[in-house]
Amino acid sequence: MQTKRFSDALKNALIKMSSDPVEVAGFFRQLNSLYAKFEVPVALRATLLKPYLNDKAKLIVARLDPSLADKYESVKEAILREFKTTLSYLLNKFKTTTKDSNETYILYGSKLMTVLT
What we know:
By secondary structure, the chain is mainly alpha-helical. The chain has helices at residues 2-11, 21-38, 42-49, 55-63, 66-69, 72-82, 87-96, 105-116. It folds into two domains: 2-85, no CATH class; 87-117, no CATH class. 70% of the residues lie in helices and 0% in strands. The chain is globular, with a radius of gyration of 16 Å.
């Protein structure tokens, strides 16, 4: 019953994880914020996360030891490690990101902020 309530709350506030490594870290920031806002119990966090994972992340979780796959922090660390969201990758991404011709400066600025945060 409690899982359904939190699942419904997240359904209206969270989108599926992107396959772009830069956006994966932002996905987890947003998810952590929602977990805090809705006061989601730690024991339910990994379970509630799984429907929002992309295919690559689902494979990563499937390969985890079952005892780790039920722990949110372990799942999060494994996904971030596999997506290689290291500081050097993010710095390189920031340096090489360019504005598309059909992109507004606000959207471009948002894209840069996503890499920085």
